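User: Can you recover a sequence for this backbone? Please restate the input before giving your answer.

Assistant: Of course. Working from this structure:
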């Protein structure tokens, strides 16, 4: 009896534990089902001892894909897994998440190294077929790709050769699509390079001949022969010429012209490709016309409308870790010299992190409609997911926004910095054979990098929240291919993941559960195309509800090596029905459904579509701005001679030798029309442009003889009181010492006709600084204008450069800084300053902004200045401020300020709780300052802590003595501020806790309130600002521009801005008008904007762009 009671007690406890585990599982978004529950035992085992030639490299761990297939058309989705050293497997869905392995009976046993899995009804018989890519019989031994034709009885027959698709390249992924819109499905094949005699990252000229061994392939469907389609290779004729290490591929209509385009990931140094469909059987690689940079080693990719604006965005994944320990142990060969060499060889800029390319719209280049993108992965929060493979966009919680799933992990840590360091030195004294053995032993001693997949929820504001820990998917793994699919047909998306040396993940979504009220709803569509494209590949489905829309396109090949569910599933959130659904089929015919109920799956037929769909055209006629550059005779190029600032100060955050050009405006020749001066770079002449009565400009080189500096800020003002505008020019660059004669400002006096001569003694000889701004006001009320010159940076970064307040006495200036306001002599690294009467006492006060400092306010009493920053009510405004404008932003009659900052599209994610810190001291006592920036990075437990932003190699290049303290990268991976800067004596500490571009509202009585500008402004640094009624509706607008191309190369350049037009709508609010709709599309590293009026009283925007041609836009006022 006792035994029975004991057993019963144990049984009850066991049931309670099981129940608790089940409830915990179901409280998370996903539940991971075991192989005992599902019958899926597939494990992509890699046996290193069986690798060809006993070679151990990263190619062995690139994994296999997943294919979602309905083998027998029973409506239950079956699963195919690609195997490398093991056979691939096919599992038949028996319902209730139970599967049967039918691989052998289906005739699908494989002995090749299978990579990509593509599911397609290739012969139009209504049954799914399987196309498999291979890396050879064994890794690196050529063998043909495989095509398994469904025999309608749960068996398949291999017929790749019969179809003309037995390609023997090292193929990664095939994607089927109708590129020529003839109704049948063609095939693009992404290929990889194996077996080369040189490193994959070795820099050699691009091979764009079309004969590269790794050139991708395009196969055209030539129609039926012997009752099935036959394909022919038309790669060369189609213009597909590249030499990349092709991995992920996504087909998508990126420019929404009705024709499918192709994005291909390029591994290693090889660039990605964006093949725009020319609609004539050919493609053009528009990657550099459409994007500004890309992932360095692009793995997987996906294309989707992530912000529900009706445009397709895309993403690629790379290998940048998120936690500090892994970051500091990840090797990078990137240096400034390497970066420049890549540019010189024609490679587009690449940086080692995930990229999210946000589609901004289209522009026309000749007859081609080109999409253009802003890369916002860091702002979005998805840029660092370690060694990643697949990325998938899908709405996993059915709230109407597409979320993100990313797989990652790698066998052996091939880019471990200490291992790389060993490999670079271990050859000494060893034979080639011994060296290879040493390397292998060292590598085998390293752990596999097994880490959890990532899951991010889309917040609906361009940002994502990492919910990995709470989602039920947090399992360490080496995961590669993945697919989403509604396995149980319950209206939410499950996940299937192919793992190395571990059973595949079957992750069941718990969003919808039987007998539970649904929090969010969904809507499914099964597409039935015509006989040549039965699944409707290329179909677009739009759903509309409450003025909002969603968009999906039917192309199952997504992510990495995989094919997802062909059923399209939309989350509809709280809505139990949607207003309308528009389906655009590949033949450009559309159908409309209205009042469509959610929680249903609709079968749609192409034959029911009868109305033709017309792509949206470019709306140039309705834009606020028009580019007039070519029509008004302004052809001016700013030229910078490349100079490596980092060779002299290795720890700089960016180059400061390319800060221009800057523009000054005014009536130079006294004809009543506004002219302008624009500066130039080292050894290049600036220019004056005089306006004529017809609104055109005539350029006159401002020749001053030999020129050894870069022109910086300038000002046109009447310095000598003779009634005409004189010209003050300041200078910069980083070639010379802080006290160099080349950094002395110069005043050029105007003879009244626009002819200038140097006033030799106008500026004191001691006034020398690398300048950022020169602003003019009569601060002392004596009737002549005085000058404030802000110093941008010193040669001992980050120590403050000199700034100057110069008092005017009939055109001769005196340095009165220390007399009038000593705090202004070294106020910090000033980027911009403004004179403004902030308290309405009719006396100009001074406001300055700069790097690692707050906005600083100086009250003018008529003779002296006193800092009143602490009294303004502003707190935590220490920023990396880059520009400043005084203007009545809200139209209430007093002066507000707009301040351009770094933006949010960066790694740092600063706040008062998690600030950036810049520490600087002479660490090795050699007489030079060593600055190290720290920011809050996750530790191995996921907690953000203050760690250095740079790796061991970089800091030791500046401070070799550090090597004695940190022999290995793994030791440096734990270094904190206290470890690197133990001596607090003479330690400079600067703080940044705000990187958003903001406007500061004047509340009166010297008080201000900070307002962050819209998130689109935060995509990039803001260097230039205009505030004016630009569209003629009577309300002030804002126009902002920027970017920064000169950042240190591991950070990567900031280039996501094309200019931003904020339309004032009253009540202190602005509406963002995208560049494609406003007409204000400004490419490049923009440094200055100025507003002028032409002879016809039209407003013109002048834009100065570093190392590029200036642009001029006309504002078109709103029609009354």
């Amino acid at each position: 009896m006792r035994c029975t009671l004991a057993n019963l007690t144990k049984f009850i406890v066991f049931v309670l534990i099981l129940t608790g585990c089940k409830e915990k599982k179901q409280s998370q978004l996903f539940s991971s089902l075991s192989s005992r529950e599902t019958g899926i035992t597939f494990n992509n085992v890699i046996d290193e001892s069986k690798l060809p030639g006993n070679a151990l490299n990263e190619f062995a761990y690139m994994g296999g894909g997943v294919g979602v297939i309905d083998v027998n058309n029973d409506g239950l989705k079956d699963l195919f897994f690609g195997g490398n050293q093991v056979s691939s497997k096919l599992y038949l869905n028996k319902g209730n998440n139970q599967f049967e392995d039918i691989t052998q009976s289906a005739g699908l046993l494989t002995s090749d190294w299978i990579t990509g899995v593509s599911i397609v009804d290739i012969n139009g018989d209504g049954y799914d077929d399987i196309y498999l890519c291979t890396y050879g019989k064994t890794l690196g031994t050529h063998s043909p790709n495989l095509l398994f034709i469904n025999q309608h009885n749960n068996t398949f027959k291999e017929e790749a050769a019969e179809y003309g698709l037995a390609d023997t390249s090292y193929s990664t992924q095939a994607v089927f699509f109708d590129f020529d819109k003839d109704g049948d499905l063609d095939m693009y094949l992404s290929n990889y390079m194996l077996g080369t005699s040189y490193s994959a990252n070795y820099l050699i000229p691009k091979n764009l001949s079309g004969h590269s061994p790794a050139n991708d392939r395009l196969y055209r469907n030539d129609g039926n022969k012997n009752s099935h389609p036959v394909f022919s290779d038309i790669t060369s004729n189609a213009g597909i010429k590249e030499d990349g290490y092709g991995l992920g591929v996504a087909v998508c209509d990126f420019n929404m012209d009705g024709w499918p385009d192709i994005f291909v990931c390029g591994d290693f140094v090889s660039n990605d490709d964006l093949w725009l469909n020319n609609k004539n059987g050919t493609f053009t690689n528009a990657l550099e016309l459409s994007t500004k940079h890309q992932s360095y080693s692009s793995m997987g990719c996906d294309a989707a409308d992530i912000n529900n604006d009706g445009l397709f965005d895309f993403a690629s994944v790379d290998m940048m870790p998120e936690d500090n320990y892994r970051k500091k142990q990840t090797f990078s060969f990137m240096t400034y010299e390497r970066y420049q060499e890549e540019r010189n060889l024609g490679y587009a800029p690449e940086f080692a992190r995930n990229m999210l390319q946000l589609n901004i719209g289209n522009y026309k280049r000749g007859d081609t409609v080109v999409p253009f993108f802003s890369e916002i992965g860091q702002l979005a929060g998805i840029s660092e997911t370690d060694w990643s493979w697949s990325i998938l966009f899908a709405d996993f919680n059915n709230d109407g926004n597409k979320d993100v799933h990313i797989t990652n992990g790698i066998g052996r840590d091939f880019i471990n910095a200490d291992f790389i360091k060993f490999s670079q030195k271990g050859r000494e004294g060893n034979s080639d054979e011994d060296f290879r053995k040493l390397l292998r032993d060292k590598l085998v001693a390293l752990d596999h990098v097994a880490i959890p997949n990532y899951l991010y929820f889309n917040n609906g504001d361009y940002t994502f929240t990492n919910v990995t820990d709470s989602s039920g998917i947090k399992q360490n793994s080496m995961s590669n291919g993945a697919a989403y699919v509604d396995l149980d047909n319950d209206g939410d998306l499950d996940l299937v993941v192919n793992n190395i040396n571990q059973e595949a993940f079957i992750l069941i979504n718990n969003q919808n559960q039987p007998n539970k009220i649904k929090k969010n709803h969904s809507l499914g569509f099964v597409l039935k195309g015509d006989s040549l494209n039965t699944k409707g590949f290329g179909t677009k489905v739009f759903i509309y509800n409450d003025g909002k829309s969603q968009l999906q396109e039917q192309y199952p090949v997504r992510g990495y090596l995989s094919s997802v569910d062909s059923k399209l599933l939309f989350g509809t959130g709280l809505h139990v029905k949607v207003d309308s659904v528009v389906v655009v089929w590949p033949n450009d015919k559309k159908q409309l459904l209205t009042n469509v109920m959610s929680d249903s799956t609709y079968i749609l037929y192409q034959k029911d579509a009868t109305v033709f769909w017309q792509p949206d055209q470019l709306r140039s006629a309705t834009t606020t701005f028009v580019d007039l550059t070519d029509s008004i005779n302004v052809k001016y190029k700013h030229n910078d001679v490349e100079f490596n600032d980092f060779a002299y100060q290795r720890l700089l955050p960016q180059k400061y030798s390319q800060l221009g050009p800057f523009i000054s405006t005014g009536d130079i020749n006294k004809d009543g029309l506004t002219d302008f001066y624009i500066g130039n770079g080292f050894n290049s002449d600036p220019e004056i442009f005089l306006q004529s009565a017809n609104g055109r400009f005539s350029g006159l080189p401002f020749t001053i003889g030999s020129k050894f500096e870069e022109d910086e800020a300038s000002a046109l003002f009447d310095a000598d009181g003779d009634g005409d505008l004189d010209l003050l020019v300041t200078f910069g660059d980083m070639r010379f010492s802080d006290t160099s004669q080349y950094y002395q400002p110069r005043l050029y006096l105007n003879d009244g006709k626009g002819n200038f001569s140097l006033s030799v003694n106008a500026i004191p000889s001691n006034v020398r600084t690398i300048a950022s701004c020169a602003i003019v006001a009569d601060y002392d009320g004596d009737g002549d204008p005085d000058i404030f010159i802000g110093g941008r940076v010193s040669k001992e970064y980050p120590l403050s450069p000199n700034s100057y307040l110069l008092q005017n006495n009939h055109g001769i200036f005196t340095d009165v800084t220390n007399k009038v306001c000593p705090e202004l002599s070294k106020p910090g690294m000033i980027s911009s300053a403004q004179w403004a009467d902030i308290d309405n006492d009719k006396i100009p006060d001074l406001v300055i902004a700069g790097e690692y400092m707050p906005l600083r306010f100086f009250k003018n009493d008529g003779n002296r200045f006193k800092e009143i920053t602490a009294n303004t009510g502003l707190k935590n405004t220490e920023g990396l401020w880059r520009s400043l404008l005084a203007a009545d932003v809200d139209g209430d009659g007093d002066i507000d300020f707009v301040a351009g900052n770094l933006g949010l599209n960066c790694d740092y994610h600063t706040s008062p709780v998690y600030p950036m810190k810049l520490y600087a001291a002479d660490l090795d006592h050699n007489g030079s300052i060593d600055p190290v920036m720290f920011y809050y990075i996750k530790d191995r437990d996921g907690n953000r802590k203050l760690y250095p932003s740079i790796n061991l190699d970089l800091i030791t290049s500046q401070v070799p003595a550090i090597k004695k303290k940190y022999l290995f990268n793994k030791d440096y991976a734990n270094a904190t501020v206290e470890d690197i800067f133990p001596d607090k004596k003479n330690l400079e500490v600067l703080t940044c806790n705000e990187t958003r571009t903001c406007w500061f509202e004047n509340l009166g009585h010297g008080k201000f309130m900070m307002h962050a500008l819209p998130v689109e402004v935060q995509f990039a640094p803001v260097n230039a600002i205009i505030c004016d009624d630009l569209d003629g509706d009577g309300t002030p607008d804002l126009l902002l521009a920027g970017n920064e191309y000169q950042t240190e190369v591991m950070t990567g350049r900031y280039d996501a801005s094309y200019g931003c037009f904020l339309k004032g709508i009253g009540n202190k609010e602005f509406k963002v008008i995208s560049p494609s709709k406003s007409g204000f599309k400004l490419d490049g590293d923009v440094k200055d904007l100025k507003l002028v009026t032409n002879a016809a009283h039209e407003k013109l925007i002048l834009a100065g762009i570093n190392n590029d041609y200036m642009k001029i836009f006309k504002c078109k006022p709103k029609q009354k």
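That completes the design. Residues 2-27 form the longest helix (26 residues).
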